[in-house]
Design a protein that fits this description.
152 residues, Alpha-Beta Plaits, four-stranded antiparallel β-sheet, three-stranded mixed β-sheet, 5 helices, globular
Length: 152
Amino acid sequence: MNDTLLTTKDKSRDYRQIYYDGFIIIKPHFLEHYDEIAKELRMRDFTIIEAERKRLTLDEAKELYVMHKNKDFFDELIHYMSSDDSIGMAVLSPFSDRDTAIEAVNDIKDKYRKRYSTDSIHNVIHSSDSYDNVLREAAIYFHDLPLFSKNQ
């Protein structure tokens, strides 16, 4: 895909504009499944545009899961997500429709959760459940890299 990575100038600073329509996190203690999940994505014609291994800060985890802040499991979830490294992936789907792209990523999430989850918190993989959350969550994970949707 020649047009997915573009270089532009912004106030004398080079950066890449990355076009994507899905966001995934392989959760702590499940990183050994990265190759398997990446292969599954490629088999379904997804392109992994950006992948980064990092340990989320507690504040990043709180921001990532803000929609759950009033739920009983929130504290356990954010402490778990900041307990060790995870891998975030911005992905580009083969679909022109955003909702279809989100559904396809969620199908992959469901497959690996069924296979490897140990409980509702330690459930292998996170994926954004809406296009707005794709943009919001990817910005939290890749805060130092400008990301733009192919549909913006």
